[in-house]
Amino acid sequence: MPTNKQTSTKAASITVTVMGHVLEVLDRTYTDHPMADVTQGDAYKVLISCLLSLRTKDEVTMPASLRLFELADTPEQMVRLTAEQIQKAIYPVGFYRNKSLTLIEVSRDILARYEGAVPKTIDELLTLKGVGRKTANLVVGLGHQLPAVCVDTHVHRISNRLGFIATNSPDETEQVLRETLPMKYWPIVNRVLVRHGQETCKPIGPRCDVCPVLEDCQQREASPRKRSAK
Ligand code: SF4
Fold first, then answer.
1. What average pLDDT score do residues 200-218 get?
2. End of a domain among 143, 171, 189?
3. Atom of ligand 1 nearest to the CA of 214
């Protein structure tokens, strides 16, 4: 594992020390964590909230999760609900009809194959309907408090823009971050980069003028014109 040297393989020109410093600054900047508040370290709640969050904003997902958990927050309780009851609770989450069926199927699967306990490994989680690497990593990390690197489009885009890495896909980003980023930063990397991507380092028109990590940013993809836009 590189320490204060240049990172290797697909990692870019930024040092591991600078990566850590950037993540610590962002951790102090973005302190709230709505998903953690709603799910309270419960792996099943993390899984359900993640499935609801696909293609849906946090402001819609989190209240919908809370409404649903009032009715059911275990697989046993979820399979007793009808799809219509779930739909009514989670509306207006995107694709709420399909998601209601997915939640029932996933809950039945967890009961049938895992005795009602959400699996702890990425490979097992990937066998559940609708679960991709992003969701699997979030369940392992936030739900089970085990080492995991959850990479979504924000984490992939901003890690590259900052200069942490030089990769072409979220899966490749996950692999390179696992190789280069010290494990103590794994629990925060998703939260802080997602929030930074939503609020400051937007895909178009990143707000570099108010960015707390401007000095350490390689600004790999942002054009000068867009960097200066508010
Ligand atoms: S300086 Fe600009 S491009 Fe770099 S992380 Fe901050 S907002 Fe993003």
1. 93
2. 143
3. 1
